[in-house]
TrEMBL record:
Transmembrane segments: none annotated. The keyword Flavoprotein applies. It comes from Limosilactobacillus ingluviei. This is Ferredoxin--NADP reductase. It catalyses: 2 reduced [2Fe-2S]-[ferredoxin] + NADP(+) + H(+) = 2 oxidized [2Fe-2S]-[ferredoxin] + NADPH. Residues 39-336 form the FAD/NAD(P)-binding domain. SUPFAM superfamilies: FAD/NAD(P)-binding domain.
């Protein structure tokens, strides 16, 4: 069953051409085969970095497995901000979260591995034989090595802390842009002053009727290039203002009252939609329940130069790890994946010669 994907609804998802997925009803016996197999490595986390690691395992023909808690691969870029542009992927400047996930899925289809979606890993423990038992909320798997690619865990947007905000529906107040077309012809207010907030405002400017960006300071916490693009756009910048009150009007619009900082001046806006981007809080609490004593620093997993953790056979990559000089970017995570996969492959098969360059591999796209 190498190269198949099992979801939590009793279906097998088989990778096809151009990363299309064919859903086939699977028997209990077929699903059981995955739980009885001894994998070379189980990758925990199906975000961009985990997907690339899975592809790299496939290139080296490792018997690998990828487990993702969400019902689809792609992680937070695909699930939380599919329309947001990402600027730190080499050769893919401005790629959206959705397109990045699709491109990585197409890449995985070239050298597929067994993939499980919709299952949360609840425990990983090292057994007396040196291998690992990986337990999810639905099944148990075995592997000789584990590669953790969880990022910083579950992300939750920082909410708009105003009375009545929670009562507004997601057509009036939201924290993500899943489809730009949903904002077509509407008056939109974006709250926030970081790169993501500016990116949202610039992304919606061509489709919305109007876009206003509200920030509590005159200076933005964003890259200079983003600020320059904002200032050159048609987005109306309102600073330094802080949201004071919000409610729904009878006509379906939103009443948003702003208060100018260090002033009694107030301003009331009546947009169709309000977008909030005050950042996210992350939580990797699931790791604490694993029966692994992983060394950590500031809630990040400590790894060495080969991406191995303090537990032999357990490797970690992506935003959830730390080492001297670490930069928390997707681009950096993509570079960590081959380091970890190569190291664990050499540890598992010390006598096997590994091709180091993809150009020397017989790959058929």
């Amino acid at each position: 069953m190498k190269g198949n994907t099992i979801g939590n609804c009793g279906f097998l998802c088989r990778w096809g051409a151009n990363a299309t997925i064919k859903l086939l009803k699977i028997s209990g016996n077929e699903a059981k085969k995955m739980t009885e197999k001894m994998y070379d490595v189980t990758i925990v986390g199906g975000g961009p970095v985990g997907m690339f690691a899975a592809f790299y395992c496939g290139l080296h023909e490792l018997n690998a497995q990828l487990i993702e808690a969400l019902p689809t691969l792609g992680g937070q870029p695909a699930a939380l901000y599919p329309e947001k542009q990402i600027w730190d992927v080499a050769g893919k400047a401005g790629v959206t979260g959705r397109q990045l996930a699709a491109d990585l899925a197409a890449q995985m289809a070239i050298a597929p591995v067994d993939t499980v979606v919709g299952q949360m890993v609840t425990n990983v423990q090292k057994d007396p034989d040196g291998c690992f038992t990986i337990t999810t909320d639905q099944a148990t798997y075995r592997a000789k090595a584990v590669l953790v690619a969880l990022g910083k865990g579950a992300f939750t947007p920082r909410p708009l802390a105003l009375p009545g905000a929670a009562e507004l529906d997601d057509q009036q107040l939201s924290y993500f842009v899943t489809q730009k077309a949903d904002f077509a012809g509407q008056d939109v207010v974006v709250l926030g002053g970081g790169d993501s907030a500016i990116d949202m405002a610039l992304m919606l400017e061509p489709v919305a009727k109007s876009v206003k960006l509200v920030h509590r300071r005159d200076q933005f916490r964003a890259l200079p290039k983003m600020v320059s693009d904002l200032q050159a756009s048609a987005v109306e910048i309102l600073t330094p203002y802080l949201p004071k009150a919000i409610s729904s009007q009878a006509d379906g619009k939103v009443s948003l009252t702003l208060k100018k900082m260090k002033s009694e001046e107030e301003l009331t806006l009546t947009p169709d939609r309000v977008l909030v981007n005050y950042g996210f809080t992350s939580n990797n609490a699931a790791l604490k329940d694993w029966q692994l004593d992983l060394a950590s620093e500031h809630h990040l997993i400590q790894v060495d130069s080969t991406m191995q953790t303090s537990v032999a056979g357990v490797y970690a990559i992506g935003d959830g790890v730390t080492y001297p000089g670490k930069v928390a970017l997707i681009a950096n995570g993509f570079g960590e994946a081959p380091v970890a996969v190569t190291a664990l492959a050499k540890a598992l098969y010390p006598d096997k010669r590994l091709a180091m360059h993809s150009s020397s591999m017989k790959i058929k796209a």
